[in-house]
Amino acid sequence: MAKLKIITIFGTRPEAIKMAPLIKELERREVIDNKVCVTAQHRQMLDQVLNLFNIKPDFDLNIMKNKQSLTGITNKVLEGLDEIFETERPDLVLVHGDTTTTFAGALAAFYKKIKVGHVEAGLRTYNKYFPFPEEMNRKLTGTIADLQFAPTPGARDNLLKEGVNKDQIFVTGNTVIDAMGFTVTNGYEFNNNELNNIDYENNKVIMVTAHRRENWGKGIENICMALKEIVQKNDDVELIYLVHLNPIVKDVVYKILGGVERVHLLPPLDTDETHNLMNKCYMVMTDSGGLQEEAPHLGKPVLVLRDVTERPEAVEAGTVKLVGTSRSVIVENGNELIRNNKEYEKMSKAINPYGDGKASVRIADAILEYFNLQKGKYREFNYLHK
Fold it and tell me: Catalytic residue positions?
């Protein structure tokens, strides 16, 4: 019997983290021939994840260049995949989430009339510029996709409201929870000694990431001023800010927080280092999407440094709180979690609605059932908060 031919496409570190456990699961299925294509929209950070999960791409477009534009990324992905699809003719192309690689990959498959599966489908803010360009990337990808792997019932409902056929939607949980089963270990030792020397037991260590486009400029400035105030007014707080390499972000962060006592400014960490730092820290402050899913899995409250989120389930569950980029609001909410044990416990013990570590199995089962290669094994994810 001929195997089901799949090409899995991704280009950034967040995509790679979430696709890695799925790739491993697809490789385990004897009836599937899965090939991996990376665009390398991000090069160095992508390679870290590939090495961590021992994934060797079959195709590497290697498109990254300095000061690349969204138009340039889209053009290069379309052109690179056109040749690969023409030669390989897969039965299914899998893309993930909301990057420019995701949308361009889905579009390239559509042009060849190849079926598309969208992992982490159905997330919406309903504001096309927040986050930019992610909101439109995922919405346009969803319009093209034949199989929609929604991480939560809420994401499924978004797709149903947009007219997607219910038989094309599979609620699976989020694969990032699967990935954390590979990366988080007890007694973890960091490669960076500065991280090993921090007193996680006796101090309240806050992990921070903030770099999204919509926060560039005044938003990042306000965030940094708020962080500085929080540290200076709480003697038991240490701050670890993983600073994005983009100078638009980096220059502002170092100008405001550089040299401040108990503030550690570090470059982005490898995936396993990031997950284990999250596991050791007291709480997380971020404008990242993925950390809103990952940190609650480890019982860490999250303050989201954005005005809107495409992950409302976490807000409803109480694992995260939207605080925006107002300096006073960030300080107020940060201080509350630092000083109010009751509020901290409430958030840290709330149920994470994003997964149980079996999303990859559900996706693989759903694919095989869609192509009539097995029956009855797919079970919808229903681990909802109460």
Answer: 98, 120, 134, 211, 213, 244
Which strand ranges, in their side-by-side order, compose the sheet holding 169-171?
A: 59-60, 32-38, 4-10, 92-96, 115-119, 147-150, 169-171
DSSP string for residues in 191-208: SSHHHHTS-TTTSEEEEE
pLDDT at 271: 86
Predicted local confidence at residue 41, as pLDDT: 81
Please count the other Cβ atoms lying within 10 Å of the Cβ belonging to residue 32: 20
Cα 270 from Cα 267, distance rounded (Å): 10
Q: What is the pLDDT of residue 44?
A: 78
Per-residue CA distances from 337 to 57, 280, 289 (Å): 43, 16, 21
**What confidence tens digit (pLDDT) does each residue in 44-70 have?**
778 989 998 999 999 999 888 787 899
Residue ranges, the chain, pLDDT below 50: 385-386
Residues in the chain: 386
Tell me the C-alpha distance between 39 and 37, whole Å. 7
Q: What is the pLDDT of residue 386?
A: 39
Per the CB < 8 A criterion, the answer to whether 94 and 371 are in contact is no
For residues 352 and 294, the answer to whether their CB atoms sit within 8 Å is no
For residue 65, the model assigns a pLDDT of 79
C-beta separation of 163 from 235 below 8 A:
no
Q: Kindly state the helix (H) or strand (E) to which residue 150 belongs, with its residue range.
A: strand 147-150
What local confidence, expressed as pLDDT, does residue 169 receive?
98
3-state class (DSSP) for residue 277: helix
Q: Are the CB atoms for 373 and 4 separated by under 8 Å?
A: yes
Q: What is the pTM of this model?
A: 0.82
